[in-house]
Specification:
3-stranded antiparallel sheet, mainly alpha, 7 helices
Length: 184
């Protein structure tokens, strides 16, 4: 690719990313109570069966515009444990938008890496919720740990995108140049 086309390519990439993200983010927020229900189911199994916590029930409190203030509620015995979760899970739409907007990826590679990355992000959501509930008393005393984890989760979609969409260019630059002709 010539250097003269590079700014235009990045401009179109940015516009595609913005267009896809503007559709996916509000849609994801609207669907967040359903995804939260799945997180409660998976988290409940892990907390109850792996750590033996006295988990009796769970539900979602859908709140806010587009459900952006929704809360996961787990009942440990008769005590509710509440957690806002929509900010945590909002890292999925930007990752998908980045993968959709990335130019010159073969469609099979795009679909496979998008699904793999989305699965990793979803697993990370579940892991965060389980660990936050399991170690909530310790985490309340050491606030720098949740802050560091929040920063990690905010950057994770971009790190995954770099590795999954562009990583082959850093690992095998000569191979990437020859394969660029094969991309659509």
């Amino acid at each position: 690719m010539s250097d003269a086309l590079l700014p235009r390519t990045w401009l179109f990439f940015g516009l595609r990313f913005l267009a896809v993200a503007l559709v996916l983010v509000p849609l994801w927020w609207l669907l967040s109570p359903y995804y939260g229900w799945l997180l409660i189911q998976g988290g409940g199994v892990l907390l109850r069966d792996l750590w033996g916590m006295p988990l009796t029930a769970g539900h979602i409190e859908a709140r806010g515009i587009l459900h952006t203030e929704s809360i996961l509620v787990f009942y440990l015995g008769d005590q509710p444990a509440r957690m806002k979760f929509v900010q945590l899970i909002t890292n999925l739409p930007p990752f998908v938008a980045l993968m959709v907007a990335t130019p010159r990826l073969r469609w099979k590679h795009r679909v496979a890496t998008t699904l793999l990355g989305a699965g990793l992000l979803c697993g990370g959501h579940l892991l965060f919720i389980v660990l936050a509930l399991r170690y909530s008393s310790s985490l309340q005393q050491q606030t720098e740990i949740p802050t560091a984890l929040a920063q990690f989760y905010l950057t994770l979609p971009f790190l995954l995108w770099i590795v999954m969409a562009c990583g082959h260019r850093f690992v095998h630059p000569a191979h990437a140049i020859s394969n660029d002709k094969d991309r659509d």
